[in-house]
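> @MW can you paste both from yesterday?
MW: sure, first one:
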Amino acid sequence: MFGLDAHRTSLLPELEALGAKTILVLASASQKAVADELTASVPGGRAQSWEFTRSRSVAEQVSRAHAHAVREQIDCLVAVGSGAAIHTARETALRGGLPLVALPTSYAGAEFVSPPDAAADHREKTRPAKRSSAADPRTVIYDPTLTVGLPDHVTGRSALRALAHGVDILCTPGASPVAVMMAEEGIHELADGAPDTILHPYGMVGRSRTQYGSYLTAAALAVTAPGPHRTLTEVVEQACGLRHTDVHIVLLPYLLAETGTKRPQDLARVAAALGCNDAVQGVIDLARDIGAPQSLRDLGMTPAELDAAIKAVRHAETPASDTQLDPEALAALVGDSYHGKGCTGL
């Protein structure tokens, strides 16, 4: 569901449609005021809030939230927040067999896309990644007003992450035509909408378009097998301990440039979706415009971690197989992305 102020106008009807009697509103600390407002809006005192805390592990958060839900006889979850909070709510819903209503406050697509470790066992390339429908939200409410106040650096990273979802689909052999159409439209909306969210912090047009684009790319990725870019990102992430999301958006233009040496048609599709002639330069320009990180060094990677990442990439078979690129070429692009060296499209 999409709409201005939809978190106020649409949540109660959805809870009634689900037959919810006792509701737990799980929210990140930054969304406490929203969570309190939503809790108070449910008549009869049937809702209570539960705060997601980043200092705790996801597994611990899920265990605590599940125990609370059982103790309070909760029969429906509402999640308000960005990726980490929504992932926690999805796992809690799955463990308790509870329906979930998600209200995302960033653009990373956590309402549809599982984190890398959750998808690690589902790497069959011949069909879409398996997902448990019990962990999917019954309803997702996209309200651009909930993204107001999101720091620019978070906006930039989550928007580029959403765009990377779309690029993955366009670079995945065998992606369905419907997923490709959704990815192309999503990339277009993100490329136009994300810069506007930075230029106009309280404007709703850019935020609405960015939300819509993030929905399209995330929903399409959720029914598409993991793309060729994902495995390389995971190898680098595991070697240096950085977040998958951050690593992926830094590697994206470098991976695109190398992908174009084997499959130039993929670059052409990405460029068309971006509305430019050069897909690689288009991604670089967008990252700069929205303040997304452009080098692994910017993310805090140390020289020792870079060496470890390059060594891991050289010895890992899956990224070379998935991307159809030589291990040395992959190692070189990781080195270039650490220094933020320019890369060129084809």
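MW: second:
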Amino acid sequence: MPAPVRRVVLGEGADHVARWALLVVLAAAGFWQTWARIAGEVMAGSGSEVVLAAPVGAVLTAVALHLRRRPELPIHDRQSDKIAGTIILAIALMIQWLVLPRYADSYVLLHLDLVAAWLFLLGGSVFFFGTRRTFRYWPSWLLLTVATPGALRLFVFALGGDRWAQVLVMVLVVSVGPLAILGPPALRRLRGAGSANGQRSGGRPLPSLVVSPREAWRSAPLVTVVAVLLALAPLPAGIDERLSPGPDASSGSGQILPPGWQELETIDYPWAERMFGPSATLERQMIRATRVRADWDELLRPRVAAVQTLTVKDPGVLEVFPLEMMFDLSSARVSPPRELPLNRGVTARYRTVIDDENLLTWSVMSFIWTRSGDRIQRVTLITVDNHEFDAEFPPAVPGTRSFSRLLNLLLRGAGAVIDTDPQEKDLDMLTELATDLVEAQWTDE
């Protein structure tokens, strides 16, 4: 290679590295809360390391595409770069500021801030390198678009939900791009038919199709401002803020009933192991009051309630599948959670649910606490508006059935899934039952 050409190529390469370094630094700074949350989720055992497979696979796919680099047409339109880059960065801002708050309860499951991060990288790449060069690596961007955190979580759940399913998904996501790009040429070489293709990338250096250094660095202030706006967007609160200290572990997987209540039956849900890990248990105790009270029922009927106990090893898995994911809420409207202090430092969250399809209205109160330091329990108390003895209670179902509610929230808005004017009929009853239930666990120690 002649000396002038070598200097041009080396200078261009250093400039490209500097552009990518700035873009990576801006992405790290703009989404610093996201990276910190993912690190915390991994430490909490939520399995969030699976979401890191997509960026690793995208980088390896880009490297494979670079190894197969071929001559391209020297076509460039800076005006198109500015339009495309601005639109993509605007979408990233809308996801972070407008869409993410709507899915606060499913934050860990969907991790929409990661989608905004990939869009920020895409828009910044368009500004720094141009549309044509950026979309030359379209398989990498497609992998980031398809392998979203929510899709990867569902894939892991479909394969069994254990650690081996998670490893299998990560290996598939990381390897699918490089194998699809480098696999066919390697097979042709093995057959003796790929020698001609292997010489395409040799010879003279290919013409640069990226924008000039002057144009690229003039875009840096705009991309920096967008990164600052993204960094200012707040993230939903973590589960650690709602985790209360609890009593020692009980001998069974359920709860000790307080005085004035008797157990009717116990229901076990074996599918909890697939969602929350092999050591997880989910049990529902159907209980009935042994005395009647006029403030609970005007006809003096004994009230029936459900006490549902989910026991897991790591608190992070409760963030992946929140309480709403354990019921079929595809046609239901749920009130915003209302926090209520109980006794012993426990704080509960109360909601009402109106299921228009099944004509069922029910109330739910839940709290999360530790048992013996190494087990975490989410205790859920449920009552229904029908006070008859054989009243129907909402069954617990695997979380995949509730994804239609998330789709309704995106397409139809909050009014389709949120009850803005709830009728808190059983608030006093559930508060008293939850308070007595909490006290009964300590009394039995």
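> thanks! The chain has a mean pLDDT of 85.
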